[in-house]
Amino acid sequence: MKLPALKFSKKPSEMDRRDFLRAGAALATITLAPGVTLMAFGGSEAKANADPAKRWGLLIDVNKCVKDCTACVSACSQENGWRLPVNKETDAQWIRKVTLTDNDTGREEYLVTMCQHCEEPPCVDVCPTGASFKRVDGIVLVDKHICIGCRYCMMACPYKARSFVHENIVDEQKTWAPRGKGTVESCTMCVHRVDTGRIPACVEACNATGHGAIIFGDLKDPESEISKALAKYPSTALRDDLGLNPGVRYSNL
Amino acid sequence: MERTIYREIQANRAILQTAALLGVFLLGAAGAVLYMEEYGHIVTGMTNQIVWGLPHVFAIFLIVAASGALNVASIASVFGKTPYKPLSRLSALLAMALLAGGLAVLVLDLGRPDRLIIAMTTYNFKSIFAWNIYLYNGFFLIVGIYLYTQMARSMPAKVVKTAGFVAFIWRLALTTGTGSIFGWLVARAAYESAIMAPLFIVMSFAFGLAVFILVVTFTTRVTGRPFGPKLLNRLGRLLGIFVGLVLYFTAIQHLTSGYWARNGGIERFILFNGGIYTTLFWVGQVLIGGLIPLALVFHPTGGRKPASTIVASILVILGGFAQVYVIVIGGQAYPLNIFPGFTASSSFFDGVVNTYNPSWPEFLLGMGGVALALTITGLGMKVLRILPTNLSDANVGQM
Ligand code: SF4
Ligand code: SF4
Fold it and tell me: How far is A39 from B121, CA to CA, in rounded Å?
């Protein structure tokens, strides 16, 4: 599926180019038959589905995240077709469980971390081809069509959120999450689910265990569960000092 | 004084042997590339923690050296130092060849080198990488024109000088652009230093001149063309000044106090307890690449010997590789501080010093880049009138 959006990539200035891409994406939405999944390649097609009035985010409650529970990690691996790490150094990990030990008190805390869907994403700034991009609803994705595998985004990401596909993929691939040797990938906030009104797989899995440590929702909607929780309890962003304003927040850290 | 005459070099036994050796390295690199293409980066030492490995060390060294190789031409045409003038053509040719070698390594190490056309046609203008593509292409164009103006018959001196000046400015921009690749990595403590761009510029001066000295010495020897010891000595002392500058900027980089306050962790890592990186820094960069070459070229009596300059050049190159290795790999080995105040652990190596074991394919690819640069230089000298027939001190003019 070759979409017009990709052809408008040679405009001289950044602004023009962005506008053109948007226009191209909009055009693609109109010209394609209804029901065709624009997300098929996880690429710039996905731009068309985003609603600028929303900003999707996650709130992770560190107090509720339980030691040794990895339900969300397994769910993400299942949903998006990446195997739970066998070669830890080279296998992709879209989401990971982290154990933190307080340097002063020795107290242990647990949380999960993934792409933080930054509002000012360094990965997007540095990407030479524009394969890394942010949708208008704040979800940061990699267009697998045009990623050249330079890994500059991995160098730039402050959260180690991205993985490079080091070898041929033998596992079954999901149509909504295509993967390919030599390209970079990361958490998509389950954009294929979000665009059809569902919640990300990790959130669903965490709820199913009864821990309920992750809230998903629209940060721009003051009535959403996530906005209300953020308004009520203290929360923080990882490396807030960098000023990237991530869409993923943590409470009780 | 006889007028400078430039002549193509003629193939002889030594040159053919060198060409065969370079060919072996090129083949090795081709094999490595096919192997990496087939199996992916799994066959390299690179991981999701050390994402840029040995190929980047080679590529960055070559690209940085490329701009520095232009030194001699710049000094001759921009700063009007006539003794260097006969070497200007080679200086320009070598600069282009080194850049080509470095870029080839960079491109072949991409996850999808087959998508090069995308990199050349789809730009994100916010990305310094995209800007660098322009800087690199522009460098070929401008230095190419500069070389042409030097070689064209009856070209007005003013035109040559202008071309040389543009090339000089461009190459400063190019090195700044290369250094800035690291400046954009906001979260990596190792690269948080305003000194990075000027440091890269002085590194380019030193590495490029060292490569240049070795290429001229070698080529004049195997072709039997005279190369005056005074001219060589003069180049050696110039190299000494550049090496001194690299040491000076390195000291600033590591001693800026505000920098220490924020980045004490990475500084202690590189300077004291970083294992291989600490060794490479002190022994590789500072001692072998800095202090020993300085002592060699500035030694009151021994410094005049051609061997001093030649050995110094080799050491500067070795030390330069160590320096780039520490910057590129050491900077990634040191863990990102995602959770200040906590000690983190995970299946993704949070909070640990990452290990990296460079593999043969990576090394072969890198060496292939070096071989490519030297092959282009050799072929250029073979088909074009690049190298003067006589570089004896009497012929190149006043010292
Ligand atoms: S967390 Fe990393 S990959 Fe995700 S948007 Fe931010 S910089 Fe990009
Ligand atoms: S690896 Fe792909 S997504 Fe990342 S910066 Fe390079 S081209 Fe962009």
Answer: 23
- Please report, for the domain that includes residue B212, its CATH number: 1.20.1630.10
Do A8 and A101 lie in one domain? The reply is no
DSSP string, B268-300: HIIIII-THHHHIIIIIIIIIIIIHHHHHHH-T
**H/E segment holding residue A98:** strand A95-102
Query: Do A122 and A206 sit in the same domain of this protein?
Result: yes
Does a structural domain hold residue B1? no
Task: Summarize pLDDT for B189-205 with one digit per residue, the tens.
Answer: 888 767 788 899 999 99
Q: Is residue A217 part of a domain?
A: yes
Is the CB of B41 less than 8 angstroms away from the CB of A160? Answer: no
Residue B329's contacts (CB-CB under 8 Å, 6 or more residues apart) are B50, B52, B53, B57, B277, B356
- Which DSSP string corresponds to B86-126? GGHHHHHHHHHHHHHHHHHHHHHTSS-GGGHHHHHH---TT
Of chain B residues 85-114, which have a CB less than 8 A from chain A? 110-113
**Residue listed under structure tokens 């050296």:** B65
Residue A197 lies in a domain: yes
- Summarize pLDDT for B158-194 with one digit per residue, the tens: 999 999 999 999 999 998 888 888 877 877 888 876 7
Task: Confirm whether A51 is domain-assigned.
Answer: no
Count of the separate structural domains present in chain B: 1
**Interval between CA A46 and ligand 1 midpoint (Å):** 17
Structural domain range at position A148: 56-251
Q: Would you say residue A205 lies in a domain?
A: yes
Q: Measured between CB atoms, does B14 come within 8 Å of chain A?
A: no
Which numbered ligand comes closest to the C-alpha of A182?
A: 2
| Inter-chain residue contact A128 with B133, CB threshold 8 Å | yes
Tell me which of A114, A150, A162, A252 to substitute to probe the interface with B (most B C-beta atoms closer than 10 Å): A150
- Round to whole Å and give the CA distance between B277 and B280: 5
**A142 touches A132 (CB < 8 A):** yes
Q: Domain containing B257: what range?
A: 6-396
A130 lies in the same domain as A187: yes
Q: What is the DSSP letter of B4?
A: P
B124–A159 CB contact, under 8 Å: no
The reply to whether A103 and A15 lie within a common domain is no
What is the value of pTM for the model shown?
0.91
**Residues in chain A within 8 Å Cβ distance of B344:** 98-101
Prediction ipTM score: 0.92
Handedness of CA B238, B243, B246, B252 (dihedral sign): negative
